[in-house]
Amino acid sequence: MASLGTFTLYATFVVCAYAIAASIAGARRGSRRLIESGVGAFYLAAALMTLGSAVIVHAFVTNDYSIKYVQRYSDAAQPVFYKLTSYWGGLDGSIMFWVFLLAVFGALAVYVNRDRHRELIPYVVAVISVVQLFFLFLMVVHKNPFETYLVQTPSDGQGLNPLLQNIYMVVHPPSLYTGFVGMTIPFAFGLAALITGHLDDSWLRAVRRWTMISWLFLSLGLTLGMIWAYEELGWGGYWGWDPVEDAGLLPWFTASAFLHSVIVQERRGMLKVWNMTLVILTFFLTIFGTFMTRSGVVQSVHAFGEDRALAWMFTVFMLATLVVSFGFVIYRLPLLKPRYDLDSWVSREAAFVANNWILVMSAMLVLLGTMFPTISEALTGNRLTVGPPFFTRWMTPIGLILLALTGIAPLLAWRRSTFSNLRDQFLWPVLFTLIVTASFIALGVRVWASGICFALCAFVFATIIQEFVRGTRVRKDATGTDVLTALIGLVMRERRRYGGYIVHLGITLMFLGFAGEGFKIDRQMLLQQGQEAKVGHYTVRNNGVKVTEDAQKQMVTGHVAVSEDGKALGTMYPARWFFRKHEEQPTTEVAIRRTVAEDLYLVMPAYELKDQSMSLQVVVNPLVNWIWAGFGIMVLGTGIALLPERAFAFAQARVAAGTVVTPVR
Amino acid sequence: MTGKAAAPPDRAAGGLHPWHLLLVGAMASVTAGAVIVAGSGPANTILVAVAILSAVLVALGVFRTLAPFARTDAGEQVEMVAGRTRSALEREKMLVLRSIKEAEFDRAMKKISDADFQEMSARLRQRAAGLLRQLDGDAGYRALIERDLAALLGREPGQGARPPAAPGPIVPHATVCAGCRTANDSDARYCKACGAALTGGVA
User: Fold this and answer.
1) How far is CA A257 from CA A200, A285, A361, A662, B165, in A?
2) How far apart are the first and last CA of chain B?
3) In a designed cystine with A34, which of A26, A233, A310, A400 is the match (CB 3.0 to 4.6 A)?
4) Structure confidence by residue, pLDDT tens digits, A320-333
5) Percentage of chain A surpassing pLDDT 90?
6) Mutation target among A23, A110, A414 for the B interface, most CBs of B within 10 A
7) Predicted structure pTM score
8) How far apart are CA B96 and CA B116, in angstroms?
């Protein structure tokens, strides 16, 4: 089986090289045969990678320990489910999984666009194939996941890292990878547009959806990572500004910026160079993120370890990407002139520009903070870390400004807004914000960052509601339908705008959750058996420590009785699990009691079986669940923005008899 | 991604095609694979089936890569620019029309002042009219369709076809209805909102 796997990798490498050559030659000579053959080879690469993936997963399920990678990341006792996910549990496999996803995603994108963007397709195929070729090259020369033991085959595997044996860890990497590889598609179309010189906005239309889908997966990956950190790592929080988390966040920032600025180019023909830059930057950052996690240039809880050779290969590839793509941007600058200029700074396009600057600035800041240890080591020889306080200090105000813009921008008109319009638009939201702020001050909220955040959330919430209410009213009057039909018609006529508002609503809820961090209570204590302690309005009581075991692990579970203001809430079970092959690295099993207002979060860092005492970390996390709920709403909004043209046609078609309509679309 | 697409539509109704054989072959090999590994657990069986199916996909991919060279039909030269300028114009027209809608909606939402709206709307309408004239003018779809129609009906091209309207003078401002103050297209004769005959505006 292993040789079949290795063969598929080699074959894919050759096929990708052929796809590049055939498509470029075909496009240069105008030969349809060559182009079609190149596209065929591109599909073939996807099929080959599927075959290779099937082979490696099969090796995992059948415990084929002659393959080194299988032996290192799996064992016989592991449930089948986690054997499947061991595929992306290690470095070699994760690179292969990456290529597999890219091949499938790319084949899908090319297949969908095969007729619509004829002139771009050969170059799109070539660009994606070059990226695949690079990762295949890594595997072929350096990290072959199908490498076998030449002499003795071990009888059992070493097992997957127990931290990764968690349902969120099963879904988190694939969704993050999908988000990452998905960003290659806009890059490929952008570069194809640059190469061919077809720089009107047709390439933007081709990539809009793909960017949105990738953005959604990236968001999903980040959120799942947060949930995983919250439930599995057991330090009481969900985001620690770990380099690998940052790696996922960087392209998220630039992709969000792109999703906004693309609207400006579509509507006003402005920001063409900027959009191209954002697409290139986003792609670069996905590769850079992969580089950071896999080459060992940063130290992190879940980096894969140091690897000099890999670091060099990545560096060369990244430099080549930057030079080639920005070279083309400069070469095509004459074609990228804006159609209009900015009319006024009090306009929606100006707000979009501001939003873009802030998002890109956030990306640069996070990048700086993440790379600071590496940079300082290179310059001074000392590894200086900046740590979470740096990020919190800088990102809090930036996040708040961004939140404020989320509220302000929808109230501004395209081109320019006058004073009386502004008054009319801002009256209700500002009033609502003032009332909310006053009531918070009256309630005694004195944490400034959280207080401002609450006020801004109220503001954004009010503007979104106002947009929906006024829009519905206007549409109701114009079409003469009932309120509900008018509302659906409104949302469906401008799916992206109103879907976007719903995404904003989700973001606002997430910000509410982040602001809750300001009221967090975090206590460490040592409890003898039967001893009680009071944290916030909760009382915890140590009812003893018990030991149990199953085939894979030994479990030490603390029994903690919890009551709130004297009312008993039941027993919670924080635990430590010792996996057989990783006993030096026990996992922390957190006990969480979730409510809408706050989470009670118990961790048992240490225990003494002799006298049944335990040290206990009690964390009260207010508003945390709003983050997850906000993410759900974000998915809903993105879904609406992605809906196909003809959905909900009934609400769009209902126009009062006799009304004259301008045929648009 | 299947060879089906390559078959001409009139033959697709019946008969045996190469891809039928491929399908049968795929089914047979999956069945054979499942029989060979029978008794080794469902996970193994499923994965063997998946592996065989992806091998079939590989075969299809090889076919797709090589088939274009075997074709003898015309179309060696790809038309890279056909319809490009026209589609760009149409796109721009759609954009302008949508901007008009957008401006109307923004005014109804009270985001822009009436004065700004009038000015903006006039400019956009003028732009739209210009684009429409450009699209209707020089040998567009209409001429093409008429020529094809004429060829089909066996008539001389141009016979019975009306020549495209000569471009009118460019009117710099929109016509505002005296009754309801609605901005109408510059060449409108009746108000689109209230139906009153338009008097002023057109010079």
Assistant:
1) 20, 14, 10, 32, 46
2) 60
3) A26
4) 999 999 999 999 98
5) 39
6) A414
7) 0.83
8) 16
